[in-house]
Amino acid sequence: MEKIGVKQKSEKKGFIARALDRVERVGNGLPDPATLFILLALITIVTSFICAQAGVSVTYEGYNSATGKIEEVTVNAVNLLAPDSIRHMVTTVVSNFTSFFALGTVFTIILGVGVAEGTGFMAALLKKVVAVTPRKAVTAVVVFLGIMSNIASSTGYVVLVPLGAILFMAFKRHPIAGLAAAFAGVSGGWSANLLIGTNDPMFAGMSTQAAQMIDPNYAVMPIANWYYMFVSTFLITIIGTLVTEKLIEPRLAPFDFSSAGIVQDISVDEKRGIRFAGISALVYIAVMLLLILPQNALLRNPETGDILKSPFMSGIIFFMMLLFLIPGVFYGIGARVIKNDKDVIALMNKAISGLSSFMVLIFFAAQFTACFNYSNLGTIISVSGANFLKSVGFVGLPLIICFIVLTAFINIFIAVDSAKWAIMAPIFVPMFMRLGLSPELTQVAYRIGDSSTNIIAPLMPFFVLTVAFFQKYDKKAGIGSVISTMLPYSICFLLGWIVLFIGWYLLGLPLGPGAPLFYPAV
């Protein structure tokens, strides 16, 4: 009987290993995200020709740009191989790229984030918090810091994940549990945060462009999902802590702590830099409050006194950039990393140079989006899809939950979040708007699914780096080892987020300032 049991266990491991290998092969077989957009653009061109020749069209109640009224509108498929379409496509290539919303927002914010990260401010801040963390709170703090580190892009992957292992070792706890907890927070909690991060304006821009296929005046704000993501920060911290301490750590083999050291505190220069940064951040926040809170404040709407529709909200990208830039500069001065203005500009140049792959991706994503919108295929698919879903009664909460699960599955194979949303937003945002669901709701559902499976996606850019961190403490660790370790986090994050979403949906709570759950069905 014992031999049979061992054989069954071996077969089970073999099945899991084969499944993981299959996922990796399929993922590696996919083209580069930029190439994917080229292929999608070509498919759109061919499909538009076929649909136009077949006379495909849809009629619906919607916004008529010619009259400016809601009335019955008929939309026909546009042949992108027609002479007028070809002339339009070749003359708008540059404007498609330069007007793509994600380009300007990401570049602007990166100027500030690049300085804060380049001076070492973000890394020093993380190390300082980790160094003073008490034993009982170590797991929760590591997960929480992982989530919060997302406001500075990849800092959490490079700094916090290895720090998590060192911190756990200092407390005589298994370093791989520390790695897992940090990686779960950084990657699995990618969309949660107490603050607005660099991804929020990028997603908002893509969602806005998709929503304007239905309503040309619709705008999704960068703070559109803030309430939900704020609460999610505590949810993911709690789940990540419980999974680490109850499921992951008890399963790990004993570890030799003879080489374990102590977590080093930051240097004298770094401490001075942190003080300078803290003071400058407080002064900046105080000035911003004076410009926002008084009834007739400069950054309020001069006519209505409103904050949501005001110069402050219109310029939120710039103000976010300053929130990173100012403390980053003062940290650099205090830590003696920055000596003059040339050092600041050099850090900005370095940060922007790191966006080269993003620029290539955005160029082709912009062309695909422009072709897709011009062909009217997005409108036809959204109207037809909405009508079908209405006819079968598959709407509301069940539809959104299935969308979350679908996104989570796709994320395993296409790990670049901006690429996936650029593909999915033009289809699902207008379709769900026709079903009475707001673009903000569709966006938050996407972000739930996208974040939940980041930690088990072999093609996620920092996954290989995490495998290397694991191998430092377990020479036999590989992709399968990391995925099997992180899978409980992924499942629990997904289930926890869905439960939170269901409660949020049933209570009808706004997802962020001025961001309702529902949109008047058209």
UniProtKB/TrEMBL annotation:
Pfam families: ABG_transport (PF03806)
Domain of life: Bacteria
Keywords linked to the UniProt accession: Membrane, Transmembrane, Transmembrane helix
GO terms assigned for molecular function: secondary active p-aminobenzoyl-glutamate transmembrane transporter activity
Keyword Zinc: no
Gene Ontology terms describing biological process: p-aminobenzoyl-glutamate transmembrane transport
Transmembrane segments: 34-56, 100-126, 138-171, 226-244, 274-292, 312-333, 354-375, 395-414, 421-439, 451-470, 482-507
Cited InterPro entries: AbgT
Signal peptide start and end residues: none
PANTHER family reported in the protein's UniProt record: P-AMINOBENZOYL GLUTAMATE TRANSPORTER, P-AMINOBENZOYL-GLUTAMATE TRANSPORT PROTEIN
Protein name as it appears in the record: Aminobenzoyl-glutamate transporter
Lineage of the organism: Bacteria, Bacillati, Bacillota, Clostridia, Peptostreptococcales
